[in-house]
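Duplicate of #3305? Posting structure anyway:
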């Protein structure tokens, strides 16, 4: 089994991919989420992962390889330690430096988040056309791939939850509100007014960015992922696909291609 780990600022998403005849399945068999906590140790996360694997009827020895995309440096080392201690494996850490096959127009490729690289890889692998991946996470990212499969960059905006938390922290009387569609756009209470502003304000932000991006990409496939993908896609008709596992798939693709390249290199020596 291949274990893909996506370490984000809010959640850590893990996925198990089946390996048969040295081929890795296109989609994960099982996925689970953990809370991101920089203070947790490799042992704390390791015990949780082992318990989840046991519930899924897998053993430690079933994990034959591990790949990771991380935007939290302190947890990158934590999960590397976890991998060696509990699975006796070194981790393939996805980045522009480790993934040599990345085609990019990014001025400084190493600045691109590993999750963004993974999203771009998976989008082009699946659709073979220009694409925009909108990842509704702690930050909302828009990642663009042209028709030749080149990662050409994108847009980063504060996520809806950041906006909600900032509003609550920076004002004396306004409460924190969850991101959800209100019954009416005109709020009849302070909470309803905040919910309306957050929801429709964010819908407007995404629509405007997409309009501008589509002027530079010809007929892109627009894919949504992340915790709020389902909520936002109901109002954004230009979104043509929702894929909650796209980042995990991208990690898997990068690992597979990197592994094949190393095997080919060894054979040629």
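Output from current build:
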């Amino acid at each position: 089994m291949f274990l893909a780990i996506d370490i984000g600022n809010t959640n850590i998403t893990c996925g198990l991919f089946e390996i048969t005849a040295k081929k890795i399945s296109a989609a994960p068999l099982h996925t689970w989420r953990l809370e991101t906590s920089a203070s947790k140790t490799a042992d704390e996360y390791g015990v949780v992962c082992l318990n989840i694997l046991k519930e899924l009827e897998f053993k430690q020895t079933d994990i034959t390889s591990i790949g990771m995309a991380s935007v939290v440096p302190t947890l990158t080392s934590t999960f590397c330690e976890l991998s060696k201690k509990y699975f006796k494996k070194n981790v393939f850490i996805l980045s522009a430096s480790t993934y040599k096959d990345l085609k990019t127009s990014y001025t400084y490729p190493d600045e691109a988040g590993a999750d963004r690289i993974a999203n771009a890889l998976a989008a082009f692998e699946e659709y073979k056309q220009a694409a925009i991946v909108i990842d509704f996470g702690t930050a909302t990212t828009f990642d663009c791939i042209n028709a030749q499969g080149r990662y050409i960059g994108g847009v980063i905006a504060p996520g809806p939850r950041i906006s909600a938390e900032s509003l609550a922290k920076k004002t004396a009387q306004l409460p924190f509100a969850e991101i959800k569609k209100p019954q009416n756009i005109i709020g009849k209470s302070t909470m309803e007014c905040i919910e309306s502003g957050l929801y429709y304000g964010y819908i407007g932000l995404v629509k405007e960015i997409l309009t501008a991006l589509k002027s530079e990409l010809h007929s892109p496939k627009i894919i949504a992922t992340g915790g709020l993908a389902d909520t936002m896609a109901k109002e954004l008709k230009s979104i043509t696909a929702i894929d909650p596992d796209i980042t995990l798939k991208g990690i898997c693709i990068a690992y597979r291609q990197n592994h094949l390249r190393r095997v080919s290199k060894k054979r040629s020596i």
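Confirmed duplicate; merging threads. The longest helix spans residues 190-214. The chain has two domains: 2-93, 109-247.
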